[in-house]
TrEMBL record:
It comes from the Bacteria. Residues 130-200 form the Thiamin pyrophosphokinase-like substrate-binding domain. CDD domains: TPK. Its EC number is 2.7.6.2. This is Thiamine diphosphokinase.
């Protein structure tokens, strides 16, 4: 049985209709600490609030006292705490929104944490421009003709083969992080196979 959570991180609140739809239709919105401020402005209700609570004022702490889960550990960020809480509470699918748009270093860190989460749970990160999907095994992706696609390989020894992308790879590594960017789908799907891994795949939303 699928049990899905939407985690709202404390970056820029999403503006695109796809991540907004995820939020509006979710029964289980998990807020990373101060993200509750944006959620309240949007008129949506949280299912849980996770974090070290350094961004919550006393009024909100009182209002949501029954669903606040305080984790003071500074070795991980609030997004990771939220993902781990979801896993512990038997969620098997997670959509992350609001994790980009402020500090660039935080955004990059959030994206490259995705493979760590993908070892334990099905996860994706939706921005206002597209979706990041971490993969730990070969995968077929639904797509559309001329969709912009980028592949990021944290392990530069990973051998990658693609099908139905304009710039194909055949048992090749991406030795530099930028080398898999700015590719393009040739139809309604494409496939990525690899040895090693993991990989992170970005797909632009259809315009």
């Amino acid at each position: 049985m699928q049990k899905k959570a939407v985690i709202l991180a404390n970056g820029v609140f999403p503006t695109h209709e796809i991540p907004l739809k995820e939020l509006k239709e979710s029964k289980h919105i998990i807020c990373c600490d101060g993200a509750i401020n944006n959620l309240e402005k949007a008129g949506l209700e949280p299912f849980a609030i996770i974090g070290d609570l350094d961004s919550l004022d006393s009024e909100l702490k009182w209002k949501y006292k029954d669903i606040i889960h305080h984790f003071s550990n500074q070795d991980t960020n609030d997004l990771t705490k939220s993902v781990e809480w979801c896993i512990a509470n038997k969620f098997n699918e997670i959509a992350i929104v609001g994790a980009t748009g402020k500090r660039d270093d935080h955004m990059i860190g959030n994206v490259f944490l995705l493979p760590q989460y993908a070892k334990k749970v099905r996860v994706k990160m939706l921005t206002s421009y597209g979706v990041f999907t971490p993969i730990v095994r070969p995968k077929n992706f639904e797509s559309y003709t001329r969709q912009q696609v980028s592949i990021f390989s944290p392990n530069n020894n990973t051998l990658i083969t693609t099908a139905n992308l304009r710039y194909s790879l055949t048992n090749q590594p991406l030795e530099m992080m930028w080398q898999g960017t700015l590719n393009e789908s040739m139809g309604d799907s494409f496939r990525i196979e690899f040895e090693g891994g993991p990989l992170i795949v970005f797909q632009e939303y259809e315009k």
